[in-house]
Design a protein that fits this description.
4 strands; about 30% strand; alpha+beta
């Protein structure tokens, strides 16, 4: 039975510090970033079994985001988001993945709260 398109596992508001930014000045000192992640997933088995092995573990999603966000440096948020999406999807290829990255307090005119990107990867054919 196909899963409902509304079945999803998500992480919202995950914050980390990283040295990302197009300009060298932005990469000199860590800045705050926020990530929102959503994976489509067939949650039917997990809803019946109550077993972690039947779902997508959001703890592992958090580990991936923080490891990439703090351990690597990217000029573009698009590249950071793409790397996170691809890494998550390597573990869950049957799920579509949406990654939203926000740079908090970016150095922009008008002092926006945040600026960011959203990347979507459809489920891979398996």
């Amino acid at each position: 039975m196909p899963h409902s398109p509304t079945d999803a596992v998500f992480v919202r508001g995950l914050e980390f510090e990283g040295n990302h930014g197009y300009y060298e000045e932005e990469r000199k000192a860590p800045r705050r970033f926020r990530a929102n992640i959503e994976l489509s997933a067939n949650l039917r088995e997990a809803s019946l079994s109550d077993a972690l092995g039947d779902t997508v573990d959001y703890f592992q999603i958090c580990q991936v985001v923080v490891k990439i966000g703090t351990g690597q440096t990217f000029k573009l948020l698009e590249r950071l988001a793409g790397c996170i999406a691809d890494t998550i999807q390597d573990e869950s290829p049957a799920s579509s993945v949406t990654v939203e990255i926000e740079k908090l307090g970016p150095p922009c005119p008008g002092v926006p709260q945040c600026c960011g990107v959203r990347i979507h990867r459809p489920a891979r054919a398996i």
